[in-house]
Structure formats: C-alpha cells, structure tokens
Design a protein that fits this description.
Xaa-Pro aminopeptidase, 5 helices, X-Pro_aminopeptidase_P, alpha+beta, hydrolase, globular
Amino acid sequence: DSFDTISSVGSNTSVVHYKPEKASCKKLSKDEMYLIDTGGQYQDGTTDVTRTVHFGTPTEEQKRFYSRVLQGHLALATAVFPEGTCGLLLDAFARRPLWQDGMEYGHGTGHGIGAYLNVHEGPAQIGGGQVPGNKIQSSEGRRRILLMPLKAGFFVSDEPGCYKDGDFGIRIESDILATPADTPYKMSSQKFLKFDYLTLVPMCRKLVNVSLLSPVERQWVDSYHLRVWEELKDELTGDSRTWLWEATRPLEA
C-alpha cells in the first residue's frame, strides 16, 4: 500500500481523511454512499485513486453532488495550459462547476506523487490549501508550493470532492501526467501542456445526472469507459468481467 486505505460508508464518507475505528465504523449498506481512497507501490510507479459509488438507488441530491464533482474532475483532466502555469491557477478549473451550485471542498485538488516513494510529494501541487504530507510550516514555503510552475513530466493527482457534513461525501481521484500539447496555433515560443489520464477505474454511472453534463463531458465519460473496457477485459473472467462490462456501458439519459 502507498498509504492507509480510506474506506468509508454513509456519514463517514463526509470525513475527508476518515480512518475506520471500531467504535465509529459502519457496515456496508446498499442505501448509502461508499467511498474508497486507496493506492499501491509498484516498481513502475505509485498510485492514488478514489472512487465514490452507490450500490442501491441514490437520491437526486447525491447525483447532483456527484455530477458537479465529476465535472470539476474532467475540467482539470482535460485542461490545456501554458507550460509554467502554477497549480494555484489550475485549481479553479476543478472548482468552477461546484461553485456555480454553492459547493466547495476544503482540501487541495491535486498533489505530486513520488515514483515508488511518497504518495504525497512536492514540488507540484494543484490547489489553494496544504496537502497532507507536504509539511511546509512557513508562509513562504506554502507560497513556493502554490506558485510552483508545472512542467512536462509532472505526475499529479486530480481529486476534487464535496462533503455534506453528517450525511455523505464524494471524491473522485485519478492520476494524471503533464505532457506536451499539440495546439492548433503556435504563438511565440510558448509551449503548452495537457494531462494524460492514467487511471483505469470506472466512474459510478448511476450517480451521474446526465442532464447536468455537456455533450463534450458525456462523450468523454463514454469514451473513457470504452477505453477501460478494452484495456482490462482480457485481464478479468467470470463475475469480475461481467461487472466491468456493466460498469463501462454508455451513460443513459
């Protein structure tokens, strides 16, 4: 493991860095949200992935929360930006869809991930807050991290969320890699970057309010799920393969 797994159900999902304790943990339920934030150390890289799911019938409010978080997640994942842009500026990409509904989250949107090292590792950070693991004490140190220019090769997380205290919480996190972008125009010598999306874990289709998504966002999710299916189908058999097939079908209006 690259860190202690965050596995939470129902109201515990609203605790951002929840840790299961015998006195406060809950049993899995088909009627409540489930959030799992987990990762592993591998010789070819380190992972940090979060998915939020519902095993029963989610409420319209839960679907709206999830859809706004998903939109923020996609806004950062599909961003094209000048090389040297700091993470503080990119943070607003992920928060904008939530802000329009009066939603917010009190943690960073992304952090650097070490290669077979620390799962929270500088110097890269996307967000306005301090990410656990980046123990920068001085205001000048925090300022340096927030204004750190992003460069090709930076490996970071994309993890907006939203948490309704005492009720439920949602976070969607994948690992992304900054790479050169091929833009239609080349003005001056400025280079542009984009993110390669590395994580192959389906979103929760039943939590998506398709009416909130733009055609471009909907197409991204459907294309992503097709990619997940094509790349993983031969690795699975039986019930696992059936689950993956159902989890990666196109979104339904």
